[in-house]
Amino acid sequence: MTGPLVPTLRAAGLAAALLLSQSARAGAAAPPASYDWWEDAPDVARAPLRGFSRADGAPHILFVNFDGAEITEALWDNASKNETSLTGWGGTYAPFGEDPGGPLRAAILNEVRADYAGLNLEVTDERPGAEVYEYTMIVVSPTGKLPGKLGFASVGCGGNPLGVGFAFFGASDNAAASEVAATVSHEAGHTLGLDHVADTVDLMYPNQVNNLAEFADACFPIEGENYCDAEHQSYCPPGQQNSFQELAGALGEPANPGGGAPVVSLVAPEDHARFAVNEDIVLEAEASDDISVSQVKLLQDGALAGTVLTPPYTWTRSYDVEGLYEFRAVARDGEGNEAESAPVLIAVGDVDFPEPATTTGDSAGDDDDDDDDDDDDASASASDGGASTGGGPTGTDGADEDDDAEGCGCRSSQRGPAPLAAVALLLLLARRRRAR
Question: Model-level pTM?
Answer without folding.
Answer: 0.56
